[in-house]
Specification:
There is one protein chain. Strand 4 and strand 5 form a beta hairpin. The protein is mostly beta strands. The chain is globular and about 55 Å long. The protein is built from 2 helices and 9 strands. The chain has an 8-stranded antiparallel β-barrel with strand order 1-3-4-5-6-7-8-9. It starts with a helix and ends in a 6-residue tail after the last strand. Helix content is about 15%, strand content about 55%.
Length: about 160
């Protein structure tokens, strides 16, 4: 697992947008200190008997998550969900911010908050969450939702 995390960090460092590139994009998502995401519908997969089976899924009570203490320069943040809190890595690209969580069970969750506003409300953004779970075999899922910037980073802080 550590090897995977190190490879992921190497990828992140090699493919993250520079601070100058981020400043050129006016999206408030890049100035976010705290973001709240709500995920609803999605798709989950299973391989029953060796055959891929895709089903519609609902995120349910696990569909809300908050990313807090977002530090785009250090590439880290905190995640607060329905079963606790923890540290996550983050990748910053022109497309948006991607949070990468490795759970205590070794599963990987990836959440991308896109930089383009979702609606006329310039603090709401489309997002996708992919859960790469191992529960008696691969059990991945992908959900779609909307995130809202709750708090912007204080420009005097950094």
């Amino acid at each position: 697992m550590k090897r995977f995390a190190l490879m992921l960090m190497a990828f992140a460092l090699g493919h993250s947008a520079s601070a100058d590139e981020i400043e050129e994009v006016p999206s408030v998502v890049f100035r976010a200190f705290s973001i709240r995401c709500e995920f609803d519908r999605g798709t989950q997969a299973s391989w029953d008997g060796g055959t891929l089976k895709l089903e519609s899924a609902r995120a349910g009570s696990g569909g809300a998550v908050t990313f807090d203490s977002i530090d785009t320069k250090e590439g880290k943040a905190r995640i607060v969900g329905n079963v606790g809190a923890g540290d996550v890595m983050l990748l910053v690209t022109q497309a948006g911010i991607t949070f990468v969580e490795i759970t205590l069970l070794g599963n990987v969750n990836v959440t991308t908050v896109f930089a383009a506003p979702y609606s006329s409300d310039r603090r709401r953004f489309a997002a996708v969450q992919s859960r790469h779970a191992e529960i008696n075999g691969p059990f991945p899922a992908q959900y779609h939702g909307v995130c809202r910037v709750l708090e912007e980073r204080d420009p005097m802080r950094r």
